[in-house]
């Protein structure tokens, strides 16, 4: 099995996703508990702000791209170029008392541009914490 750090451009504490629950051509579902970690590199003096949710979503999207590439392709590099329709229900991720579920779905892809939707929810009650529609440039 390939380690998550081998599939995304991060190592150490910056790898925010613990497991990939499922992945197919259109969707990926991941889980994590790294929002609890006092060594999470996105934490500030007050805790883990909701703005960190975008990085959790970006890592799920990167994993989706890496896991769906053909064996002969190199791992694509992706950059979020636009965030639309972002919505959240809390200001702090560290206050969520259970694992996070990160779901990302590809909505469209045309050449080097893709549009994804992603949602982060609490495993304890499946209510959404953050959701957004993002455009990704792929090279």
Automatic annotation (TrEMBL):
Pfam families: ApeP-like (PF22817). This is Uncharacterized protein.
């Amino acid at each position: 099995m390939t380690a998550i750090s081998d599939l995304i451009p991060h190592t150490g504490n910056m790898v925010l996703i613990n497991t990939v629950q499922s992945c197919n051509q259109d969707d990926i579902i991941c889980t994590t508990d790294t929002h609890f970690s006092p060594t999470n590199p996105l934490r500030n003096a007050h805790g883990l702000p909701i703005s960190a949710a975008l990085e959790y979503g970006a890592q799920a999207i990167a994993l989706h791209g890496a896991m769906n590439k053909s064996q002969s392709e190199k791992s694509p590099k992706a950059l979020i170029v636009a965030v639309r329709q972002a919505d959240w229900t809390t200001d702090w991720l560290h206050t969520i008392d259970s694992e996070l579920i990160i779901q990302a779905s590809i909505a469209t892809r045309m050449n080097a541009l893709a549009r994804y939707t992603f949602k982060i929810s609490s495993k304890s009650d499946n209510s959404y914490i953050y959701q957004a529609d993002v455009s990704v440039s792929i090279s």
